[in-house]
Design goal:
2 domains, Rossmann fold, 375 residues, alpha/beta, globular
């Protein structure tokens, strides 16, 4: 397999990509000659910060407004913090309140830039390559919810409202898209490491200066465990008074990617499995599998949003054979992109849902207020 072998995994990402991901998360300090590229990246991040601040100011000068409630879900760092599962949670919540919901997304990594309707509330009408993996997954997980992908978010919202009859709109990954007015900005952040190493791109994961969190009306900390003090301290220092809700990802089911059949956890417990992921926080996925009782003997890691090719899958199968594993376990987002899977080895996906562990009443109140106050 292309790449390097780590302690637990045969990785499909480059050495440089793995180094940057570890450095940006603040997992370890640079050593030796690593300080040279870090210094260069830090200088570039200063220029990026100036440019990002100007762009945000210019875009927010005259935001486009709509007559329906608009809720944005986003973050201030690149990579996964659990935005899409929260969008799915919110879509189901608003449905229960009688709303006709549409999700509007940019569709990161998709083919083309035209506005496309992924679903009108039934099954997806296009494949994931034209929709983007996250909008496609949202369409699969939310029945009765329209999903629209558009490079221009305002155009996507207008289409959802005028053509699809939406009376509530969720913007996926739109915290920096300030050119579109919203009734609530939900900032999603890792509870333990809200800003990674604290540096702007490309020296760190920050998309904009940390003070941008002041635009949020609600902060949702994900991966909440015993330690959420870093998020609380950051919020208190930069944006005191913004309510904080803590969540975690709750495993809900295992299902066969080829057949769609649900699989009982007890049928996989103690059997050797290989994890397969191309997400921003692969080790978090591995820990989740171990927490539910799976014995992970290896982990094939690819870059976030990786488009799997036949050669990649052959390498994964080879790793499983070497490890003595008869089952590959992947994420739901990866399952969307594994439509090329052709192997006697069983490919299983782990389904997850957002679980609010602290602040449910606050969450419901803030969301209800935003929906009721929609212009």
């Amino acid at each position: 397999m292309k790449g390097e072998r780590s302690v637990r995994a045969e990785v499909g990402e480059s050495r440089a990509a793995g180094w940057w991901r570890s450095m940006a998360r603040g997992d370890e300090l640079p050593r030796g000659f690593e300080w040279i590229p870090v210094g260069v990246l830090t200088l570039l991040s200063l220029l990026y910060g100036i440019g990002a601040s100007f762009v945000l100011w210019a875009r927010g000068w005259r935001p486009v407004r709509f007559d329906v409630p608009v809720i944005s879900v986003g973050n201030v760092v690149v990579g996964g913090t659990g935005k899409t599962p929260l969008v799915v949670y919110l879509a189901r919540l608003l449905q229960k309140k009688g709303r006709s919901v549409a999700v509007v997304s940019r569709g990161y990594g998709r083919e083309g830039r035209d506005l496309v309707v992924v679903t009108r509330g039934d099954a997806p009408r296009i494949d994931w390559r034209k929709a983007g993996d996250e909008p496609y997954l949202t369409a699969l997980l939310t029945k009765g919810v329209a999903v629209v992908v558009a490079a221009e978010r305002a155009r996507g919202v207008r289409y959802a409202v005028e053509k699809l009859g939406a009376d509530a709109v969720l913007l996926d990954d739109a915290f920096q898209h300030v050119g579109l007015a919203r009734d609530l900005d939900i900032l999603v952040s890792d509870a333990a490491r809200p800003f990674g190493n604290g540096y702007l791109l490309p020296a760190g994961p920050l998309r904009e200066p940390p003070g941008g969190i002041r635009r949020a009306g609600l902060i949702v900390g994900t991966r909440a465990a015993d330690d959420s003090q870093e998020l609380r301290k950051a919020a208190e220092a930069l944006a005191p008074g913004i309510p904080i809700v803590l969540t975690r990802m709750k495993p809900v089911e295992l299902w066969d990617v080829v057949t769609g059949d649900t699989i009982r956890l007890k049928d996989l417990r103690e059997r050797p499995v290989v994890a397969l992921s191309s997400i921003a926080n692969p080790l978090d996925f591995e820990r989740t599998l171990e927490r539910i009782g799976l014995r992970v003997v290896d982990h094939c890691i690819f870059p976030d949003h990786h488009a799997y090719e036949d050669g990649d899958l052959e390498d994964v199968i080879a790793v499983a054979a070497e490890s003595g594993a008869g089952v590959i376990v992947t994420t739901e987002k990866d399952a969307v992109r594994l439509d090329r899977w052709r192997s006697p080895l069983r490919l299983v996906a782990l389904g997850i849902e957002v679980e609010i562990v602290e602040g449910r009443a606050v969450f419901d109140r803030v969301v209800e207020s935003a929906v009721a106050g929609g212009r």
